[in-house]
Amino acid sequence: MNLEGSFFVPRPRAQVWALINDPEVLRQAIPGCQTLEAVDDGYTATVTVSIGPVKAKFSGRVQLLDVQAPESYRIAGEGNGGIAGFAKGGANVRLQEQEDGTVVHYAVDASVGGKLAQLGGRLIESTSRKLSQQFFDRISDIAAAA
């Protein structure tokens, strides 16, 4: 599955970079996130997600690669949801500064296995788009309140 898009945050690029790399902000913004901790080169997290009839608690690790602060990086990660299956993938993230704020561009490539893979691509993709939009909306709300 591949998702691409962008969202606008009415803050300077350095502030947006700080927000999207702050573990507490990420914990608040990631739908279903129960725990999130910064580690050497990324984060560990526990996230509960419902996709159709399958609800799973994923534990995983995300690495930040090719970091070019405050401009871009690649995220690579993997999560295990027990009998529900697994998810793995990555995303390229690029922050483009504009006069009135910052556009965050993203390109995600992900795959799932186990019971999740049996649900069908359309359901997984639509749920992923919905969760992504919730994440971006929360980031924008947090930025507006800052």
TrEMBL record:
Q: Which domain of life is it from?
A: Bacteria
| Record flagged with keyword Iron-sulfur | no
InterPro entries given in the database record: CO_DH_gsu (IPR010419), START-like_dom_sf (IPR023393)
Q: Which residues form a coiled coil?
A: none
Q: Which terms are listed as keywords in the entry?
A: Plasmid
Q: Protein name, please? A: Carbon monoxide dehydrogenase
Species per Swiss-Prot/TrEMBL record: Rhizobium rosettiformans
